[in-house]
Automatic annotation (TrEMBL), chains A, B:
Ranges where the record places region Disordered: 324-358
Protein name: LacI family DNA-binding transcriptional regulator
Domain HTH lacI-type: 2-56
A Pfam family reported for this protein in Swiss-Prot or TrEMBL: LacI
Transcription regulation keyword on record: yes
SMART domains found in the cross-reference section: HTH_LACI
Bias type Low complexity, positions: 334-345
Molecular functions (GO terms): DNA binding
DNA sequence: CTGAAAGCGCTTACAG
DNA sequence: CTGAAAGCGCTTACAG
């Protein structure tokens, strides 16, 4: 392989001069700089990453710890991963992907061995076993997902509580009086998937505050189970006029369920989901939704992480906890409930539509 | 950080002895070995990856180059990625994920800098710009996807031609006489997505050989476009009794389309797709399909890659080109065509069902 | 069975 | 503006 020694020899300078000429870290005569640059280009020189890491204690690699659980909807995870990976690259970092089941062990391995300059944790649980290790690690960490104890790391997540309130308020403004909420599977909650109950609790409280009847249920993450459950819920609560979905699989299953029942949204049922626009487009989901913003969250996490890595001042700044406010993307699946519409003939279908992306 | 010097000092031996004791690469007295092991454990020693890579010229990292195109169905990619990543870890390797749009540039970067010991390319095109670079790289490479020129690398892919023939033959045995094939978008073909026409050509030829009428079309990778196209195809070819799908988005859209038309598979239409079982379960697709085996292909690619990396003999073995034979997973969506069934009353619905996974 | 030393390819004070 | 040298933390011939 071609080393900096080869460049130095070809340019007729010392290795240190070659190094400085390439890095620009001290002033070099234009002549020499040109000779070094030419030599590097001609010989196709790329610094050896291991050697550079050893000398500088910087790898320019970030770790990305993803966790895949059998009872979660895997495709949603990909968008977070791409948000992280693409942003990292934009900032000059590569991404070490870790999908190992034992995330704590993996985290220790990549941090102890100094394979990475920082770590992004995905799918963070309430009491995440990886967190104590991350706090103890010399590298900074950023989370996508809000844990019980967010200290010592930068945390980014959708504001699920605000999302729940926004869903209820939107339905309330349209005069809905009875709603169904389908959350992720209960297993997710038991494993510490706090976002499930953060949204659910907010929905429950806001519904109570608004005098709205609410039926909250956990839904499976697989088809056809989730479709069957949706049917059962609609059977059980015929007076419900609005459906809130904090469950990607349920959203994907709903078109068939509605079709089978001869229902249309928003004519017969108003629907709001919680998923990404990319997800909606991929599966053609015609339902308004609170944008889960996976790419944005991944990007925010990496930007903050890299700032902490590179900026010596940022290193000791207080950690941030940023909850992205919910944005309701209007796809026209909400309107006045059937009864209200018959009762008040002049009522427009969505007088308070929040707009969102077109 | 704790280095091997710290271990050596704590154990009262030289650094080389500590290193040998840890690696077991030469015989060490039981006493010393124990003292070193204790010291390493107590101090929480993990070798510095950069230093080790510099000394051994091995990183124990494989590069994973994924490519995401706007007109392809992204969720399918995740399973290949997990197949690679999980297998790599099982073999003691970490995975550097590259999602950069300019795959060739990225490949050069990670190979030239010696960040990886080998590379897996996903989504390989007929005339893939990354291939010349990979052949010129000092590290071995493995592909998932068959390029026009497979020399210099190990290649793994589904046997799409055999898959096409199997689809047609299955329909032929059931006495279907007119079929529709929906492929991936034409853009994928233009970009060099050879698997599209490998399957399509085989279907066309086999249909001709069997005297079966065939209507081949490219389908969009997005909803609702693909659903609309499916409707148009079924409208245009009312006599077609079988539908072959080499397009994940089309498969995901089909249940709604069938429902909207009041059709049931296999009663009114026999259907065979080409996607993974994981995909089928996630979206509850009730259609028999040729398994695309993403996890298996990712695993095979990594196993061969690691063998070439670690086994000095394997290094110079001839490169392999392995096409995984298609396996038809029977989900009960094929049967005799409606006309044949009325014609021959005693005909069982699927006399030659290939079984496959239950 | 063990140790002193060289070397992997960089970067960066130190010295001029 | 430039060079000789030290050092990052490992591994591994070389020598005993």
């Amino acid at each position: 392989m071609v080393t900096i020694g080869d460049i130095a020899r070809a340019a007729g300078v010392s290795r240190s001069t070659a190094s400085y000429a390439l890095s620009g870290k001290r002033s070099i005569s234009a002549q020499v700089r040109q000779r070094v640059a030419d030599a590097a280009r001609e010989l196709g020189y790329t610094p050896n990453a291991g050697a550079r890491a050893l000398a500088t204690a910087e790898t320019r690699v970030v770790g990305l710890l993803a966790q895949f659980h059998a009872d979660e909807f895997a495709p949603a995870m990909l968008q977070y991963m791409l948000g992280v990976s693409d942003t990292a690259r934009e900032l000059g970092y590569d991404t070490l992907l870790v999908t190992e089941a034992d995330g704590a062990r993996a985290l220790r391995r990549i941090t102890d061995s100094r394979m990475v300059d920082g770590v992004v944790l995905l799918n963070v649980a309430q009491d995440d076993a990886r967190l104590p290790l991350l706090r103890a690690a010399p590298q900074p960490g950023a989370l996508v997902g809000l844990p019980g104890d967010p200290s010592g790391v930068d945390v980014f997540d959708l504001d699920f509580a605000a999302a729940g309130r926004a869903m209820v308020d939107h339905m309330h403004r349209l005069r809905h009086r009875e709603l169904i909420l389908v959350s992720q599977p209960e297993h997710v909650v038991e494993r510490g998937g706090a976002y499930v109950w953060r949204l659910q609790d907010a929905v429950v409280q806001q519904a109570a505050a608004r005098g709205i009847g609410l039926h909250a249920a956990f839904g499976p993450s697989r088809q056809p189970d989730v479709g069957r459950d949706l049917h059962a819920l609609l059977d059980a609560h015929p007076a419900a006029t609005g459906l809130l979905l904090n469950n990607e699989a349920a959203a994907a299953a709903l078109p068939s369920v509605l079709h089978a029942r001869g229902l249309r949204a928003p004519r017969d049922l108003s629907v709001i989901g919680r998923y990404s626009d990319e997800f909606a487009r991929t599966f053609s989901l015609p339902f308004s939704s609170v944008e889960s913003a996976p790419d944005l969250l991944g990007e925010m996490a990496v930007r903050h992480l890299v700032r902490r890595i590179t900026d010596p001042l940022a290193r000791d700044e207080p950690h941030v906890l940023r909850l992205v406010p919910p944005e309701l993307v209007d796809r026209g699946s909400t309107g006045a409930p059937p009864t209200a519409r018959t009762a008040g003939p002049g009522t427009p279908p969505d007088p308070h539509g929040q707009g969102g992306r077109p």
